[in-house]
Every structure is written in structure tokens, then in C-alpha cells.
Amino acid sequence: MGKVRKRYNSVPLWLALFFMITAALLIAAFGSHFTSILARGKADEIQSRYITATYDTTQGDVQYSYDFDFHFEDYTAEDMRLYRITRFIENYAALFWYSVCIASAGIVFYLTKLKRPLRILNNASQRISENELDFTVEYPGNDEMAALCGAFETMRSALEETGDKMLRILDERKQLNDAYTHDLRTPIAVLRGYTDMLIRYLPTGKFSESEILETVQTMSSHVERLEQFADSMNTVQKLEDVEIHKEKVPAGEFLIHLRETADFLCQSKDLACEFESSVTTETILVDPSAVTQVFENLLGNALRFAKSKICIACSADDNIFAVSVADDGKGFGDKELMTAAKPYYSGQAEKGQFHFGLGLHICRTLCEKHGGSLRLENTDRHGAKVTAIFLCQSK
Questions:
Q1: What are the beta bridge partners of residue 387?
Q2: pTM for this model (two decimals)
Q3: In the predicted model, is pLDDT for residue 108 greater than 70?
Q4: E strands in the chain
């Protein structure tokens, strides 16, 4: 029974309806035919009890002439009632059978092919309207209703993914707001303190010119920090508007460009640079500006922490392009592996410096917009390693 049900669920709607209507017409034809025969037989049986038959016979050529007289006035009330009923059944049997069978075919078609998927879709739409997306739309089969349920499930999955993304964006916005508040509080407090001190003591003449100059220079450094912080805020806001434009880039030329950039920056820091590539494809489908920006950010982070060497590895296939940058520094701590890619995280080594920890956050955002991801880990020698993965497929 299960196999029959499964096969029936795979029959297209138009074909299932055609089979049911055909079966209904055949049943109606046979049913009306036999019902008419039975009703006519019963009517003839009643009528035969009140018929007088006369006939004439000639002697030459044998000819027979029959004449029947129907004596309806002699019918009993019961026989007349039965006779009229049977005649009515005989005349309207076809209409009754065809109406009932076609209506039954429609009801069976609805119950077996439409009722369950419509109930599933209605329930799903109601749950979606209530912002409940933690469910799946499942309907077995390969007919049009199964395809519709599948499309509905795709829509629900997309809405759930979008909802998760929006929640993540809201969470990141909250973290950004917390970071804004935290990082703004210190320079503003310092500037407020120095301003109050100057207002209070400058008119008394207790400050020498050198002390005044030192105070103003300190205030200027904190103003510079606020300016840099404002620029970093603008950078984070603009990330949401970045659009990825993939194009086929010659792999050889692109890798040479990345290597030249790495060699130049490493030489400026007196660091050794190892560059490995296992890319064998002639072209890669990427957004070159986005990949270059991610690569330069990863390289800039590695330059800050590397002791003597930076290792770069590139790989690609038909689906992804990956570039990893590793240094021989102290590596990531357990907490940093979870939080280093968040905005305004700079690590203990950066305290007291004007660095706002946006590099890895920018890299992660660009990788995700490119359909990929950012992976943080430590090397076997305890250095930090960051791998940027870009999806090389057009939408």
C-alpha cells in the first residue's frame, strides 16, 4: 500500500484528474445502463399484469397482427406508484449516475492530491506570518503540489537565513555601539580633564609655556585618536554597502601581483616571505579588488606580529579560491580565536596604540559577501594563521 501511495503521489495533477474523470465516466455509463435495465424490467413486469393482447391471422400468407391495450385505469394504487417510480428511475438514471460519479471523482481528487499539501502550505504560511521559521515544509512525491511545497520550503529557508543574518547584524551593531561608547569615553574624559585644568589654572599663571605646550600636544593626540575613530566608524558603515562583482581573472598575473605586494611589504619590515601556490587553473572567478583588500589586511596583521617570517599559500579549484597568511608570532589565544574577527578587537599587544582592530572584521565581511568565509587557527609552531576562502561561482 505504501508503494502504491508513493507512486500515486508522483503522478502529475492533470494525469491523476484525467484518470479519475475517465474512471467516473466509465462507472457512470455502466451503472446507468444496468439501473435503466432493472427499472425497465420492473416497470414491464407491473405493466404486463394489465395488458390485453389481440391479434389477427390470415390463411393465405401467414400474417400476424398484434394489438396491445394498456389498462392504466385498472392499476392498483401501489402498482401505479411503483410503475411511476421505475419509469422515473429509467429516465433519470444516467443524469444521477454521471452527476454522482463526477462529483465523487472531484472529491477523491481533492482528498488525495490537494487537501494535505494545501493544509501544509496554509500551516506554513500562518507560522511564517507569526515570524516562526524553525520548521520544515515536507511533502513526499514528485507532482506539482510537491514542487510547490519544495518552493515554499526554499522560501522559508531563505527567510530563516535572512532572519539569522539580520540577527547577526543587529548583534554586531550592538557590539559596535558598545565599542563606540567604550573607546570614545577615554579620550573624551582626558580632553574634558585637560580643558577644565586649563580653564582653572591658566589665568593664574601657574603653568609655564612648556607645560602648556605639553598639555596641548597631549590633547592634540587624543583629538587625532577621535578623528581616526570617526574614520573607522565610517569604514564599518560602508562595509554594508559593498557589492561584489566577480570576473574571470588570469590566475598567473593575479598571483604575481599578490606575491610582489607581499615581498615588498615583508622587505620593508626585514621579514622573510615564503609564497606557495597550488593554483593550476588558468583563470579564477573572483572580485579582484575584494580579494586584494582581504589579502593586504591579512598581510598587515601578520606584519605586526611576525618575528622573522611570513608564509603565504594560495589554492584554487572550480568552486573556491583560498589564500592563507601565517606568521611566526605568538599566535591566537583561545579567546582570540573566537573574537579576533569582531570589530574593534585589537588584542593585548595593541593597547595604548591608535589601532581599532578592524582588519579581520573587514576580511570576514568581504569573504562572506563573496560567498566564502574566514578561518582563524594556529600553526604547528604556535604562530597565527588566517585563511580567507572565496566562492568562485556566479549566482
A1: 324, 375
A2: 0.50
A3: yes
A4: 51-57, 64-70, 247-250, 272-277, 283-286, 309-316, 320-327, 373-378, 384-391
